Amino acid sequence: MATDPSYRRKGVGRALINAGERWLRDRQIPKVQLMVREANAAVAPFYEQLGSRRLRASSWRSG
What we know:
By secondary structure, this protein is mostly helical. It is about 35% helix and about 0% strand. The chain contains two helices and no strands. It has helices at about 10-25, 45-50.
């Protein structure tokens, strides 16, 4: 999932995350795994602000 740059810092990402979490809760799904690409590490503080915490870092390469 991504937010178009012109909509960043306007609450759109937060609304998307909140809606997704609400959908999961309504279906009694207790956990969700968030994966962030290393190239997008700048978004980590946003997720931390929403209550996520970093568990570990992994690197993957296809091919």
